[in-house]
Amino acid sequence: HLRKEESMLEKAITVIQPWVEKINELSHLKALKKAIVDLLPIFIAGCLILWINRYIKWNEIDQIGLLFCQVYPLFLVAAYGYHYAQEKQSSVIEIMVNDIIFMLLFRYLGNMSMQESCLIVLFFTFIFNSVFHINSKIPVIKSFFPQGAADYLHKIMLLCLNFVIMGVLIYIGLAFYPMLSLIVGGMLGAVNSIYGILIVILITVFFWSTGMHGIAFISTLLRPFWLQMLMLNMSQLLMNQSPLYIGTEPFYQWFVWIGGSGTTLGLVMLMRCFSKSHHLRALGKGAFKSGWVNINEEVIFGTPIVMNKLMMIPFFLTPCICAIVSYIWIAQQPFLYPSFLSPWVFPFLLGGLISSGGVFQILILLICLFIISILVYLPFFLCYDKQLKNSEETGGAVCTISE
Q: How confident is the model at residue 401, as a pLDDT?
């Protein structure tokens, strides 16, 4: 029966994995992911300065922060254009400049803020760059001009054509902007809801439990949404207004993935302090330092949790419970909404404190979540530790799947 379950899981992985790889290799998403990663240090540095200013309270810094939120989408579009041009081996300067012009015209003609229209502009930029790439394949116009002159005129004509297409796309985007804004608002609402958060968690831990990198796949699809939600939250806080969204990326980082995906810091603490199995005790000692900076591949593959029928249960259950408790707690206090991004290698207490704008009250919640992670993992840890101890005493191999 156990082998049958393993076979079914392996078949599911075989079906899912090619689709995951195809999505990760989509040129637009791949370029956007690289752009976000490239600009992430700048965003984090800005967030840290704004967090410090929550205590200093210099109004000029907050004003600069508001300006930063306004222009950051422009940097993002430019970085995306750079990586997309590299993906398609096209002219980097042309695509970057065209994408910047596209966003500026969309913002100016629509009289809207960049962070509010960021996702819609990115969508139309995807379309525009696809058309730009297709137009670049049009054969060179044959004429009685010398080859150099013909190539030059051909390039000018293609750019004129692309500017016409840009104008058409901007006109369509602005005409349908109210409807598109409602669609994007609905998508953000779904991502921000507790149901959307739980779905993201379950998908992430499912991929991890089968040996695939769950965060890498999820972040490819959701980081644009998380980024817009985060920028809007930051703008609201800097204007002394209540933030709008709970389910931003820092929510997962500091209130769900404590110690890494699966909320494994509690498990690491149990292994280090209470394990009677030599294998788990040694693993706990080795993973203790890395667990505090949210690196837990050693735990996932060393325990192992991957394909482990027993340990997969708390691996799914713990982050879901932490998410529900955090969501209910934070929803009662809007100014605790995660609104600042901090380095993912920070200890969770510091990261959670920064993400919520430096309100020390959040530390109570974070300590409670850590205790919850220990309590949920405890019965499964005791059972698995006993299995491994018995196996070690009888000279058997380390179990990887609960019998």
A: 41
| Residue 262, Ramachandran bin (φ over 0: left; ψ between -120 and 50: alpha; else beta) | left
Question: What token pair was written down for 154?
Answer: 């051909």
Return d(Cα 290, Cα 10) in angstroms, integer.
Answer: 30
Q: Which residues contact 105 (CB under 8 A, 6 or more apart)?
A: 166, 170
- CA–CA separation, 360 vs 13, rounded Å? 43
307-333 burial, b if ≥16 CB within 10 A, otherwise e? bbebbbebbebbbbbbbeebbebbeee
Mean pLDDT of 249-268: 93
pLDDT for residue 2: 46
Structure tokens at 41: 């240090």
pLDDT at 400: 45
Place of tokens 């300590």: 367
**CA separation for the pair 171, 242 (Å, rounded):** 33
pLDDT tens-digit series, residues 193-218: 999 999 999 989 888 887 777 777 78
- With 0.90 as the threshold, say if the pTM is over it: no
- d(C-alpha 214, C-alpha 312), whole Å: 14
3-state class of 247 per DSSP? coil
Using N-to-C axis directions, what is the helix angle for 265-274 and 362-393, rounded to 10°? 50
The pLDDT assigned to 210 comes to 77
Query: ∠ at Cα 339 (251, 252), nearest 5°?
Result: 10
CA 226 to CA 235: how far, in whole Å?
14
Phi/psi at 360 (5° precision): -65, -20
> Which amino acid is located at 234 in the chain?
M
pLDDT in tens, 162-195: 889 999 999 999 999 999 999 999 999 999 999 9
- Which whole-number Å values give the CA distances from 134 to 17, 158, 361, in the listed order? 30, 11, 54
Indicate the angle between helix axes 114-135 and 92-110, nearest 10 degrees: 140
CA distances from 321 to 99, 198, 314, 368, 383 (A): 42, 9, 10, 12, 21
Q: Cβ–Cβ contacts within 10 Å for residue 60, how many?
A: 8
Is pLDDT at 75 greater than 80 in this prediction?
Answer: yes
The residues, ordered by sequence, that sit 6+ positions from 181 with a Cβ below 8 Å of its Cβ are 117, 120
